[in-house]
Design a protein that fits this description.
Layout: H1 3-53, E1 60-61, E2 70-75, E3 80-84, H2 92-96, E4 102-106, E5 113-121, E6 125-135, H3 137-180, H4 198-229
Parallel strand pairs: 1-3
Antiparallel strand pairs: 2-3, 2-6, 4-5, 5-6
Helix pairs in contact: 1-3, 3-4
Length: 230
C-alpha cells in the first residue's frame, strides 16, 4: 500500500473515531440540557398550581397560565380534587407508583414529537402536569448528525489527500530522479521547496549527494584520461 493511502486510512480512522466520540458526547449533553429545560418548565407549572390555584378551591382549573397543559390534582387518598377540562392522561396511577417524577414519551413512530409528564408529590396533594406534542429537538439534531458527520469526514479526507499530495510531491521527485540517475548522467537536481522543513533538508541533501557524485565521476574521468595519455 502506498504511503499516501496508509496516511489517509490512518487519518480517516482517527478522525472518524474522534467525530463519533464528539457526536455522542454532544448528543448526550444536549439531550440532558433539553430534558432539564422541559422538566423545569412543568415544575414551575406544578408550583404555580400548588401556590396560586389550589387555595381558590376551584372544581375546574381554567387559568390562562395552564394553556397547553393538562393538570390534575389528587389528595393522598387518590381522590380527584380538581383538574383542567382537557385532562385525559389515563395512566396516572401507573406512574404514581414509580420512583421518578419526570417522564418523556415517544408517542409517534417518526419520533417528531414527545409528550412529558411531571408528578409533584407532598403530604397533602399529588399534582400531575402533562403536555403533549412537543417538538422533539433531539431527534432533529440526531438526523442532522447522521448527515453532517459523513459529510465532514469526507471533506476532511479530501483536504488531507490534497495536503498529502503537497507533502509527498518532493519525495515523488526524489524517486523519479534516483530512477534516472546513471553513470553518464549524475547531475540530477530537484527544486528546493519553499517551506523550510525536513522535506527541504532531504531535497538539499539529495542535490548535494548528486553533485558530489557528479564531481567524483568527472575527477575519475580526468584521472583515467591522464593515465591513458601517459
Amino acid at each position: 500500500m502506498k504511503l499516501k493511502n496508509r496516511v489517509l486510512w490512518w487519518f480517516g480512522g482517527v478522525t472518524f473515531l474522534l467525530l463519533t466520540l464528539f457526536s455522542f458526547a454532544f448528543y448526550y449533553f444536549l439531550n440532558q440540557s433539553i430534558n432539564t429545560t422541559l422538566q423545569t418548565k412543568v415544575q414551575k407549572i406544578a408550583q404555580y398550581v400548588r401556590l396560586e390555584l389550589l387555595p381558590k378551591h376551584e372544581a375546574v382549573l381554567s387559568d390562562a397560565t395552564l394553556s397547553g397543559y393538562q393538570v390534575a390534582v389528587y389528595d393522598v387518598h387518590d381522590r380527584l380534587i380538581t383538574q383542567t377540562a382537557n385532562y385525559h392522561f389515563k395512566k396516572s396511577r401507573e406512574y404514581l407508583e414509580k420512583k421518578e417524577s419526570f417522564f418523556i414519551f415517544d408517542e409517534d413512530s417518526d419520533h417528531d414529537f414527545v409528550n412529558i409528564l411531571y408528578i409533584d408529590k407532598d403530604k397533602d396533594y399529588v399534582i400531575f402536569v402533562y403536555e403533549e406534542q412537543i417538538d422533539n429537538k433531539i431527534d432533529a439534531f440526531e438526523d442532522t448528525l447522521l448527515v453532517l458527520v459523513p459529510m465532514l469526514l469526507l471533506l476532511l479526507l479530501v483536504l488531507a489527500a490534497k495536503m498529502a499530495d503537497k507533502i509527498l510531491l518532493p519525495i515523488q521527485h526524489l524517486t523519479e530522479a534516483t530512477q534516472n540517475i546513471s553513470v553518464n548522467d549524475m547531475k540530477k537536481a530537484i527544486t528546493l521547496p519553499k517551506e523550510d522543513d525536513e522535506i527541504k533538508t532531504l531535497v538539499h541533501s539529495f542535490n548535494t549527494m548528486t553533485q558530489r557524485l557528479s564531481d567524483g565521476v568527472e575527477r575519475l574521468d580526468r584521472f583515467n584520461s591522464d593515465v591513458s595519455h601517459e
